[in-house]
Write a sequence for this structure.
């Protein structure tokens, strides 16, 4: 403790409420972080992530970064975690993960060892040397001006170009997300399209062919399940066998 | 006066380590994403601490940018997860070995 406190040249001793708030927030942050890693269910992980984010927001407030604390709660807890939860529930992957299965032998112990080594190394390095070097600037959060004013002025003067680049990044992200999440149009992939076109033909007007050939029956059963994944899988499965079915259909038609 | 910055930075280191551990150990893609968020939050905490220590508002502006980049990253990453999930119904990173030699 004394070593930690002696690391940095700071002013007087912290007051008791500050220490208490810091301790509680740090405990919340660490408990949430461990919960994210340990929880089996992704929904629980997401809720633990919210806990961590709130703890970090409290630590922001404790360091006079009020605006960032608000943004943290609004953007992270309000948008990002909700997006996570939406995707978890949209995909229906809220079942538990089999942690015991380990495809890469020895990868997990190695990861734990590496992370522990790096963490202890970094913490020890902070003990033996200074965490921060450099001279404090005059203008900063302690000048008495409101936090938002300083950030806004800095954002629109010093950091104007990164700010504009950020807007470009957001646009690109939106476009990328739309492109990624869009269902691929049926016209582009030739094999799947031929199959999709052939399916109604087999099952609809020509039931004899569908009954005679085994593959069309299989696709018909698979098509009953409406999920996109199974539909694509059925297209892939049927992709190997349609030539006989199609040929048979053509024979019957002729 | 307020807490010594060393405490904040130590907490940030530990938080980053937990996030890195999660990315390395877990197999669920969504949880790996959440652990990336943990690491970004650790860096944010360090940025704010440095901003306070050095009296430089630039640290807080950088946190602002990190937030934006994190939001964009999550949007694109979850889009990729949805696209992968459409092809193969699993969110397990180990199932994505199509390019394995």
């Amino acid at each position: 403790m004394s070593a930690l406190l002696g690391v940095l040249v700071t002013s007087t001793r912290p007051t008791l409420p500050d220490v208490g708030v810091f301790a509680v927030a740090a405990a919340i942050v660490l408990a949430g972080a461990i919960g994210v890693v340990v929880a089996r269910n992704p929904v629980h992980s997401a809720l633990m992530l919210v806990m961590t984010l709130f703890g970090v927001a409290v630590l922001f407030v404790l360091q006079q970064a009020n605006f960032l604390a608000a943004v943290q709660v609004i953007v992270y807890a309000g948008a990002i975690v909700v997006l996570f939860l939406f995707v978890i529930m949209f995909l229906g992957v809220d079942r538990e993960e089999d942690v015991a299965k380990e495809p890469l032998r020895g990868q997990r112990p190695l990861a734990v060892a590496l992370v522990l080594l790096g963490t202890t190394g970094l913490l020890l390095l902070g003990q033996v040397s200074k965490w921060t070097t450099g001279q404090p600037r005059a203008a900063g959060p302690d000048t008495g001006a409101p936090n938002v004013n300083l950030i806004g002025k800095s954002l629109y003067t010093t950091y104007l170009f990164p700010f504009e680049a950020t807007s470009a990044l957001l646009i690109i992200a939106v476009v990328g997300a739309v492109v990624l999440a869009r269902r691929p149009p049926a016209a582009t992939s030739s094999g799947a399209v031929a199959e999709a076109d052939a399916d109604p033909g087999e099952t609809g007007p020509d039931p004899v062919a569908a009954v005679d050939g085994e593959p069309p029956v299989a696709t018909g059963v698979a098509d009953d399940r409406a999920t996109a994944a199974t539909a694509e899988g059925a297209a892939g499965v049927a992709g190997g066998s349609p030539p006989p079915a199609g040929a048979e259909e053509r024979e019957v038609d002729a | 006066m307020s807490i010594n910055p060393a405490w904040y930075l130590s907490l940030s280191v530990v938080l980053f380590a937990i996030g890195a551990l999660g990315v390395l150990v877990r197999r669920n893609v969504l949880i790996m994403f959440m652990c990336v968020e943990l690491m970004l939050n650790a860096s944010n905490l360090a940025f704010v601490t440095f901003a306070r220590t050095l009296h430089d508002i630039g640290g807080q502006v950088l946190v602002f940018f990190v937030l934006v980049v994190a939001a964009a990253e999550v949007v694109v990453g979850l889009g990729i997860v949805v696209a992968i999930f459409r092809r193969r119904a699993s969110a397990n990173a180990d199932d994505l070995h199509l390019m394995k030699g």
User: Anything to note?
Assistant: The mean pLDDT of chain B is 86. Chain B touches chain A through 76 residues (CB under 8 Å). The domain at 5-91 of chain B is CATH 1.10.287.3510 (Helix Hairpins).
